[in-house]
Every structure is written in C-alpha cells, then in structure tokens.
Amino acid sequence: MLAEADIATTVFITERPHHAHEKVRDEDLSQWDTLVVMSGDGLLFEVVNGLMERPDWKEIMKKPLCILPGGSGNALAASINHYAGNDHVAKKKLLLNCTFILCKGLHTQMDLASLSTASGKRLFSFLGFGWGFISDVDIDSEKYRRLGNARFTLGTLQCLAKLRVYQGRLSYLPAGGAVPPAGTEAPGALPADSLLVPLSQPVPAHWTVVPEEEFVTVYAIYQSHLSTNLLMAPAAQLHDGCIHLFYLRAGISRVALLKIFLAMARGTHLDLNCPHLCYVPVRAFRLEPRAATGIMTVDGEALACEPIQGQIHSRLCRVLSGS
After folding, report:
1. Which of 109, 143, 173, 226 could pair with 284 in a Cys bridge, judged by C-beta atoms 3.0 to 4.6 Å apart?
2. pTM summary value
3. What's the pLDDT at 138?
C-alpha cells in the first residue's frame, strides 16, 4: 500500500527496551515527514517520551505520529479507527485500515497527559493510567503475549478468580469551568502543570476527594478504546481536553464485574447502572495508594506503585487520523 501510494520509508527495527526512546531523542529527524510506529502501544509511549526530552520538542511534536497495530492491545489504533468512523475491526483488517489512514496523510492534534510521581518522574501519556484490576490483567497476561488479544480474556478470568481490593485516596478536578491561563515557559521548557500542586501538599479546595478509599480498579483514559475489543470511553476524542476517569469501588461481585467487561466490548457498560462503577470526566487527578501494593501502568507499561497525579495538556502533539 505504501509503495502504491508512492510513500518512501526508512525502516528502523528496535533491538532492546528504550531503543526507540533513545533513537528519537537523539536523532536528526528533519529528513522525515512522519514518524510511524508499528508495534503495540508501549513502543509509541517510548517514542512520545523520547520526543518530549528533546530541546526542540515543541517543533518536533508538530511532526505527525502514526500507529500501525503490531501488538496485543492496540488501543490507540482501535481508537483512531473508531474516530475515523470505520466499523470495529481487529488484527489484519485493523492494520489495513490504519495503513490506509497513513497513505491518506491527513492529521489532527491529540491531547497528552502529564503524569508526575512521588519519586520525581514525569511522563507523558497518550492513552491512559491504571491501578488495580485492569493493570493487573495487563501485566499479569504478558506471559500469554503469543495469544494476541486473547491474552486479556485469559488474564481477566485469572484476576477475577483472585479478585483483590486496593486502598488509597482518589481526588480529581472535574472537567468544565474556567481553565487557568498557561504560564510562560522558558524556550525549550516542558509545559507547566498549572492545575497541579506538589504531591507533598493537599489537593486544592475546589477538587473533589472520593469518600471511598477501597477500590477494585482506577483507570484514567484519554482515548475511546482500552484495547481492540474494549470500548471504554465512547465519548472520548483525540483532543477533547478531557481525562475520562473510571473507578470501581470495592464490594462488587465477580459476576457484576464480568458483566461490565462483557458490556465494554460494545461500549454499553455505563448503561448497566452498576452502583460500584463510577465515571467522571476530569482535567486532573491524584491517586495516593495507602501502601505500595498493586501494579500501576501508563500506556500499558508497568510503573512502581506510589502516589501519582496528572493533568491533561490539550493538543500537544499530532497524529495521522484519516480526517
């Protein structure tokens, strides 16, 4: 398809973890019009964070990114296929649709979230942050990667069998209302997290603190799909300036939890009106685990379990989107 569209490509094959991160951080990228990642979401996470470490990140992030699905979950590819108005597809058909989007060359802006951890890390995320059940499924099922997307079905059943509860405090700034003006950053400085205060301080008074402190899962997503077959946030768009925050309170039965995930395949899980499932669109959030238990993930990659907060940054990069 690329040859028929007269698109010249240079292929770079990664050889180890962080190879793509280092490549895009240090390379002269001026000779290419688009950066295409053919992999799962994890490799694109490397690329985004490598680009954001460049002194010329502001100019480089105007260069469109493209995802061709080659992983297990392929959440961003499924989301872009959804935004383009295409029917739900997977595997080779999803790859063909995404390649057609690449050939058309039409791109638009995409939000990124900035995540800051208690240990001092700052990460940029295009998909979502998770803690608890969903992250457990994602990381625990890595050993079944050869099964493709079916690994998540098997992982879900295993995590249901040993359903765990996680204790912590969740706070958020609801979407809507006036947005504080952005600060004036020095040339090359990364965008300031104007909605956040340091993790060592209490959240601002106008934030909402969730009264419950026992959760099955917390997931903050900024795209429509959590994986090829999970339409988690049907209302999400590439640049809606919103984090779609979901959390499941403790006390939910295994049957009810399974029903939610089966309904999520069609994006109808909120129609179940499950009292344990909460959804709120937010612009920023903070999660403070009571203990360092459970797996945290960002864009499908594992993180150490520690206090973390994040906010959305509108239209921070560009992606090929078909429209």
Report:
1. 173
2. 0.93
3. 77
